[in-house]
């Protein structure tokens, strides 16, 4: 792509095909306002894409929401080469784009609406149990056949079934999600608390219920989970800092600064700090993937 065509991604979608514009609109909305996604957004994609292609679009956008939080929050330097070629970042911008307004970037004063109260959360979870997925998913037996042997003796949840549409990248993502929840140096409870906090920010009801199940299994029932937002005094300063960071990375990733990471490092090692970032990044993916597809809660 030429520099001008890349610049058009930011400010002039008229030069792209209708199916591309539909995908860009989903990417923008799912990135900046994921809590506003509804049936109409997915129905609009059906003019251009099959159900499997819609799942692939959502999966791709959700993963980039994870990747961009990871690279920017940790201040990872930009590579100077890609696929054995040098990258030029200083090519002059065409005059027509110098003053153009972005169609994509969030406004400086953009804020999310207040978090839902517990009564609204309960209503949303009830609806989540009754809803049907917005796309066709593989059956449980079909999905299990694509998974490693560890899945053969347990139910395959909706989100894993959706990921098995992609036998390599999707199954790898399902395996990674399992590892993130159960392995690493920070404890499982903190990881479940981070997942819960991120899902609250994104209004991702399937993900919130999944996090509540994990919390309950670790001895923290749902009625205690609400105390995580905002993190109460009963929590340690380290946990409060981790949850505040995760909420900020979820809702306003472009505002993360060196000071935010420095506060985490007062309580956690560099490895643990990176793991906290990674858990929150994975939640950004999981929230968007499960909620955009409208996955119903398992019994």
Structure explained in plain terms:
This protein is mainly α and 299 residues long. The protein has 15 helices and 2 strands. Strands 1-2 form a two-stranded antiparallel ribbon. Strand 1 and strand 2 form a beta hairpin. The longest helix is centred in the first third of the chain and has 23 residues.
Concise description?
This protein is mainly alpha-helical and 299 residues long. The chain is built from 15 helices and two strands. The protein has a two-stranded antiparallel ribbon with strand order 1-2.
Please specify the SSE layout and strand pairing.
Blueprint: H1 3-11, H2 18-32, H3 39-45, H4 51-73, E1 81-82, E2 85-86, H5 95-98, H6 118-130, H7 140-146, H8 158-163, H9 169-182, H10 188-202, H11 205-217, H12 222-225, H13 237-251, H14 258-265, H15 270-292
Antiparallel strand pairs: 1-2
Helix pairs in contact: 2-4, 4-15, 10-11, 10-13, 10-15, 11-15, 13-14, 13-15
């Amino acid at each position: 792509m030429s520099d001008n065509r890349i610049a058009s991604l930011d400010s002039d979608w008229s030069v792209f095909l209708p199916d591309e514009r539909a995908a860009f609109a989903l990417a923008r909305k799912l990135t900046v306002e994921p809590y506003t996604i509804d049936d109409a957004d997915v129905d609009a994609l059906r003019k251009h894409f099959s159900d499997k292609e819609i799942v692939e679009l959502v999966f791709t956008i959700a993963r980039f929401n994870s990747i961009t939080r990871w690279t920017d929050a940790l201040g990872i330097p930009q590579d100077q080469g890609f696929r054995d070629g040098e990258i030029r970042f200083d090519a002059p911008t065409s005059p027509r784009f110098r003053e153009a307004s972005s169609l994509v970037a969030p406004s400086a004063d953009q804020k999310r609406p207040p978090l839902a109260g517990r009564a609204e959360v309960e209503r949303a979870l009830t609806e989540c149990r009754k809803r049907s997925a917005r796309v066709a998913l593989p059956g449980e037996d079909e999905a299990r056949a694509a998974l490693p042997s560890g899945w053969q003796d347990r139910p395959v949840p909706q989100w894993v079934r959706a990921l098995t549409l992609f036998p390599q990248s999707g199954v790898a993502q399902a395996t990674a999600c399992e590892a993130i929840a159960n392995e690493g140096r920070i404890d499982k409870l903190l990881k479940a608390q981070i997942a819960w906090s991120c899902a609250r920010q994104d209004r991702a009801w399937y993900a919130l219920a999944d996090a509540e199940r994990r919390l309950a299994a670790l001895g923290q029932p749902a009625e205690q989970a609400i105390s995580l937002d905002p993190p109460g005094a009963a929590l340690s300063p380290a946990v409060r800092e981790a949850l505040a960071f995760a909420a900020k990375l979820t809702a306003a990733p472009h505002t993360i600064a060196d000071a935010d990471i420095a506060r985490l490092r007062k309580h956690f090692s560099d490895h643990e700090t990176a793991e906290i970032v990674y858990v929150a990044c994975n939640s950004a993916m999981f929230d968007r993937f499960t909620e955009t597809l409208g996955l119903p809660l398992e019994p």
